[in-house]
Structure formats: C-alpha cells, structure tokens
Design goal:
Elements (H helix, E strand, L loop, with lengths): L13 E2 L11 E10 L2 E11 L2 E3 L7 E4 L4 E4 L1 E6 L1 E2 L2 E2 L5 H12 L3 E8 L4 H16 L6 E4 L21 H10 L4 E6 L6 H10 L3 E4 L6 H10 L3 E2 L15 H8 L4 E5 L7 H11 L4 E4 L11 E5 L2 E6 L2 E4 L12 H10 L5 H15 L17 E4 L5 E6 L2 E4 L5
Parallel strand pairs: 1-5, 2-5, 2-6, 7-10, 10-11, 11-12, 12-13, 13-14, 14-15, 15-16
Antiparallel strand pairs: 2-3, 3-4, 6-20, 8-9, 17-18, 18-19, 20-21, 21-22
Helix pairs in contact: 2-3, 3-4, 5-6, 8-9
C-alpha cells in the first residue's frame, strides 16, 4: 500500500495473537484489504495508536497479520431500539448498556438510541436517562420515533398514544434531551408537521419523514422546510404509484435526503433495495437495524413499548394484528447480505453502513472511515464477510479470530 496509512514492514514481527499485546501498545493491522473512501486497497494496513488511527507506525508497534481479511470502518446505526434482550425505550441503565454492548459485538461502534411511541411524560423522562448515556459517550444521541406519526401507518406503535406534531410538543422532547436529541420521526402531513420540521431544523435536530400517509406534494413541502431523512424507506408509508407517487418518489429524488433501509431480507425485496440505490445513489443510503430487544438474543415474546411482540425465526411481529415490529438485525448481517446477496460493491456497503450515517450525524470528521486522525473504530471480516474482530476507540471489543 503506497498510502496515507503508512508503509508496511515496520516494528515487530507479525503475529496472529493480538491478545498477547500489552495495553496501550501501538498496533499495525497488516496485509488486509482495507476499504478506504477511495475504494478497497489490497495488502494494506491500518495503524492504531491509542484511541486514534495514525499515519505512521511507531517503532514499538505490534504488527498483526490479517492477510486474507477485510478491514472496514466501524458501523454507525442511526435507528436502533435495543438488543440483547434489552429495550432502549423501557430498560434500566444497565439493561440499555447491555443492549449497546450487544451491538458493539456485531460491529456497530456508534449507535443512536431510538424510542417508540409513549405518553409525553414518559418520553421526557426517558430522554433524561438516555441523554446521560449520550453525555458519557455510550450512545451518539436520541431518536424519537413517535408519537408524532400517522394512525394510518402506525406499524408497531400504540394508536392510543399517537398525537399530532404540534411544535410545542416537539419542543418538549428536544428540551428534555438536553441537547442530545439527534432525530425525530414525524408524519409531516399531520397538523403542525411542517412547522415542527422547521423547529427541528432550527435546533440542529434531524427531521425524518416516516410512518406517514403523505402525498408526493406534502412530502416535497416537508423537504423544503428542512426534512433530511426518510425513516425506513418503503416501510410504513404509501407504496409508489404511477398516478400517486406518494412520499417514496419525493424522498428518492431529492439530493438533500438520506434514505434509511432495513436490509434484513424481510422488510425489503432486493428489487426495492436496488431501486433505492439506483435513484438515491450510494452516497444517500444509510443501512439501519431498526432493532428491537430480540436482536442478538433470540426468538420469544417481548414488549415493544406497550405492545406485545412475538419473534419467530428471527422475524418480529405484533401478537395482535401481525404487523412487523422492528427487526432482529445486526449490522454485520446487513453488511454480509449487501455484498453477497445484493451484490453491492464493498465500498458502497461501507458507505451505507459507516460513512453516510456518520456524515448525517455531523461526525464524519471523527468516524465513518479509516483515515489518520479519526477514531480507531474498525471491523475485521474474513473472506466470507463474517465478523472476526471489532475495535472501538482503540480497544478490542471482539479480539481478532484469525486462526
């Protein structure tokens, strides 16, 4: 690699046993295919010194041979309700941390905690708890999915708790989050919706269009007001029609909008995913999990807010009515599916899982790519794209399994 990440062959002899490294020792991951913003580079290396990626290997650096593997940036999930048996909406602090840890083990090094619809008093209290975790760096912020969504497209949200997105109500959640509100999903066609989009934009909070029954024209109006994300595009919104194109066409065509996709094989047909990539382009897609408690945990009965969910064969559905209720997806599985089933170029998968959501969060200067000066957040994958190692801020979450 003739490159920004340093020349090969420095420091100590290569080893395949990173667990033997002394704490704080600079590290060189050598010989892998490293996926950079410019594309994959074979026989490359990533140099880690403390919590950051650097461009030059110190003489005392340990070299780990990861030949035959891929090194990609840590995954960034902007829409995630829980995992490991824990809910971000209702769990204790310890339970929330367990859920976060579950996703770390699957390569997600940056995570936004999403809530589901609840009454306003409960959500404001929940915002206070989650904001403390954001202040500690455990999560990247809070996403409020509901209660400001359409009863017609409620999905796995309690209809009795839904309300119109009055700006004063939206402001309550923003204030309760103490500067840690990252995103609010709204049905912007509801009374107060467009004004709330403007309010969110003024406060630096992402306004996301989702769980909506909006027309094409109403969606365009919301985008013009400042909405910049499509919450799980295609799901919980009117289908694309040739006379009534609805929100999907408006969200795909506007270059200001990032579209979320749940790439689990259940929420989307592969043709729908291909349509999104063709029309939005690889730089406007963000893969999300929309995960609920069962992610990384298993089948069984769970609660999603006040609603009971049955998870069978990895698919979560409401017990009452059978609506899909989030997912059990982890982003390592989304990555593997993207490159093996959807046949996306690996650099497009990396963009959707790391770079694009990092940019959306305003954190691309620190995360989302393997460049000197950025956080040492990375994932090691084998030749079959199975996860073999995870590093977050220079610390192994999953020590490389290279044998």
């Amino acid at each position: 690699m003739a490159n920004a990440l340093g020349a090969r062959g420095t420091a100590r002899p290569a080893t395949t046993h990173p667990q033997a490294a002394m704490a704080g020792t600079p590290l060189v991951l050598s010989g892998a295919t490293v996926v950079l913003p410019t594309g994959p580079v074979k026989d490359g290396q990533v140099i880690v010194d403390g919590p950051r990626i650097t461009g030059t290997a110190p003489e005392n650096a340990q070299v780990i041979d990861v030949t035959g593997h891929y090194v990609v940036p840590g995954f960034v999930d902007i829409h995630n309700h829980g995992g490991g048996g824990a809910s971000f909406t209702s769990g204790t602090v310890d339970e929330v941390l367990k859920g976060i840890r579950t996703h770390h083990l699957h390569g997600t090094t940056t995570l936004v905690a999403s809530t589901v619809t609840g009454d306003m008093d409960f959500l404001t209290r929940r915002a206070g708890l989650l904001s403390e975790l954001a202040e500690q760096g455990d999560i990247a912020g809070i996403h409020f999915e509901g209660p400001f969504i359409s009863p017609c497209r409620k999905g796995a949200h309690s209809e009795e708790l839904l309300r119109d997105p009055a700006p004063a109500e939206v402001r309550k959640l923003i204030d309760a989050a103490r500067g840690r509100a990252t995103m609010v999903t709204l049905a912007t066609e509801l009374p107060g919706g467009v004004d709330s989009v403007r309010l969110l934009a003024e406060h630096g909070v992402i306004a996301a269009i989702g769980h909506t029954d909006a027309t094409y024209e109403q969606t365009v109006q919301a985008i013009e007001a400042g909405a910049t994300v499509a919450t799980h595009l295609f799901n919980a919104m009117p289908p694309l029609g040739h006379r009534e194109p609805g929100p999907i066409a408006a969200l795909l065509e506007d270059e200001r909008v990032t579209v979320e996709l749940i790439n689990d094989g259940t929420h989307l047909h592969p043709a729908a995913l291909e349509l999104a990539f063709r029309h939005a382009g690889a730089d406007r897609v963000a893969f999300i999990t929309d995960a609920m408690d069962a992610a990384g945990f298993g089948d069984g009965r769970y609660m999603l807010g006040p609603l009971e969910v049955e998870v069978a064969d990895g698919v979560a559905r409401l017990v009452d009515g059978g609506s899909i209720a989030g997912s059990t997806l982890t982003l390592d599985r989304a990555f593997k599916r993207a490159v093996t089933i959807d046949r996306l170029p690996i650099e497009d998968a990396v963009a959707a899982l790391s770079a694009n959501p990092a940019r959306l969060l305003g954190r691309y200067d620190r995360i989302g790519s393997l460049e000197p000066g950025k956080d040492a957040d990375l994932v090691i994958l084998d030749s079959d794209y199975d996860l073999k190692g995870v590093m977050r801020l220079g610390e192994w979450v999953v020590e490389p399994q290279l044998g």
